[in-house]
Amino acid sequence: MPYYQTWEEFARAAEKLYLTAPMKVRVVLKYRHCDGNLRIKVTDDAVCLQYKTDQAQDVKKIEKLHGKLMRLMVSKESGDHE
């Protein structure tokens, strides 16, 4: 499973994947202190999207996307349960 080279491509693909299968998608964040790498993986078991960075400025971008996906998950679930 290769990593995306640019953040913009990864963010678009991750959001699109979530919107196509919101009940199957999961998001994993992993930080390895020994490498100084932060990795984000978005998967629905059929498709796996990954992005890795060691740049501090990318952390804010990852936080922003993670927050956006979490908000989408909460809003979809609250609508389904009513």
Note down, in words, how this protein is organized.
Residues 5-73 form the SRP9 domain. It is found in: Cytoplasm. It comes from Oncorhynchus mykiss. This is Signal recognition particle 9 kDa protein. One of its GO terms (molecular function) is 7S RNA binding. This protein is α+β, with helices and mostly antiparallel strands. 48% of the residues lie in helices and 24% in strands. It has 2 helices and 3 strands; from the N terminus they run H-E-E-E-H. The chain has a 3-stranded antiparallel beta sheet with strand order 1-2-3, covered by helices on one side. Strand 2 and strand 3 (48-53) form a beta hairpin. Helix 1 runs parallel beside helix 2. It is globular.
List keywords for this structure.
3-stranded antiparallel beta sheet, 2 helices, 3 strands, 82 residues, SRP9, SRP9-like, alpha+beta
